[in-house]
């Protein structure tokens, strides 16, 4: 049986980026991915097909009470980044220190922002991030500008941004991973069609996801092998329990086992924890790398919500993933504790608005297209705090169960109020009359797109699962490189931090 130097399990923001970083090292790398290539097909941009879950897993998870739910999870080459919005933000400097929140303390990281800064630079270059530095006052220091300038706002978004700025805030362009108009290899892509970007697969490859950037980059090298449709069932150790030696996968109803000197788990925070727990053996009775009892604990998913701001003024924007309002990240005049970040999301399709606007549909002749043509869509994110009771467990059949109680909701409530006041003010000053209305919802337990924190890193093996290099304290050659390592979640989208950390870990592994 071939013995690889490194096996990477999973191809999302963590695994895909790690593979790309390690490929030039010449090491024999095997990538095991449970999913297949996401098909390029008409339905990629069909809002109904996407909303009905065409690309979501059919796997069901259970909540603490045993009730089944469908998790917002995508198992493809590229993982959840195939569907992501490509908003690549750095954590803020304060996120690396201990911070007081309404519901308690967000703990310090064992490394500082300055340790991550060069990796953020590299990740932004790799993923062709388009942005503008110096507008967002909460942005951490960076050695260089963004690799590419921000996309210009469409007229309506420019108007709204100007109106928000007149209120004294700092609307900034959302930094976006876009391989347009020219990617890092100098190739032109003249098919600028990115309206359906956030929450949709991108058949053009213009969205910088971990498949088109990470995995395709890695596969340029002959020493890299990708095996798809291989779900990792178990990581096996030697008799001492100190070394991980192989991975057993399910493939077309059969089990296969692959060996390597080093094994990296990058299955996403929930699946990585589940895989370690399922890999319990005599030497690791509570699960692999789990002498601390912390594998799966401190699960965070963010307090995320959608706010649809309706006003009389039409919003004909096609690409609406434009404005970030960072001003409440550290708090507000009337709020001593952090609230979070507000940003636009992709436009809701008329087909999907019926649920959101409910009874109002059809009143005064206002159909779904009318609402879609007026609404500005926002995604708001407030930090949730790590709690040991919020955890991933697996039952006797290996099924995933999430125990998750929301916390720090006051921050979310206040953040939503701030957005409503801002958009009320925008509408009032536009003088076109009509009422401003708000629709939307807060994501529940199924909304795990920002999952993180189940294998936190740290210096002390009693209080962390991974050491500061993301190697499991308990084993000599087992690493975790995805969003699992976060000790706290901050309130920005997590992918860039997973990518930057994968580059950091990749540099260490390349030198082994
Ligand atoms: C609709 C949507 C929009 C989003 N928008 C943004 C955004 O704009 N900005 C941002 O920063 N983040 C965004 N996110 C979140 C972002 O996608 C994740 O933070 C990121 O992908 C996490 O990377 P990861 O490597 O931890 O896990 P994933 O990307 O989930 O990758 C895990 C990989 O492991 C594979 N896998 C899982 N279990 C196994 C197993 N047992 N065996 C083999 N393979 C396995 C999966 O198939 C997958 O390929 C969004 C997510 C969604 C769903």
Quick structural overview:
With 512 residues, the protein is of the alpha+beta class.
Identify every distinct bound molecule in the structure, by name, code or SMILES. flavin-adenine dinucleotide
Largest sheet: 7 strands, mixed
Shape: globular
Strand content: 15-25%
The termini sit apart by: 22 Å
Task: Please report the number of helical segments.
Answer: 10
**CATH hierarchy, class of the largest domain:** Alpha Beta
CATH topology of the largest domain: FAD/NAD(P)-binding domain
Integer-rounded radius of gyration? 22 Å
Number of strands: 22
What do we call the CATH homologous superfamily of the largest domain? FAD/NAD(P)-binding domain
Give the proportion of residues in helices: 10-25%
Describe the structure.
This protein is an alpha+beta fold and 512 residues long. The chain has two domains: 1-40 and 60-84 and 89-116 and 209-301 and 453-512, FAD/NAD(P)-binding domain, CATH 3.50.50.60; 151-201 and 303-382 and 407-443, no CATH class. Helix content is 22%, strand content 20%. It contains ten helices and 22 strands. The protein has helices spanning 13-22, 47-51, 113-126, 155-166, 210-218, 269-278, 350-357, 368-372, 409-430, 495-510; strands at 3-9, 29-32, 61-62, 68-69, 99-101, 104-106, 129-131, 148-149, 172-173, 176-177, 224-227, 231-237, 244-251, 254-265, 303-310, 323-325, 341-344, 376-382, 391-394, 400-403, 437-442, 478-480. The strands form six sheets. Strands 1, 2, 11, 12, 13, 14 and 22 form a seven-stranded mixed β-sheet that branches. Strands 9-16-17-18-15-21 form a six-stranded antiparallel β-sheet, covered by helices on one side. Helix 1 links the parallel strand 1 (3-9) and strand 2. The model has no long low-confidence stretch (mean pLDDT 94). It binds flavin-adenine dinucleotide (FAD).
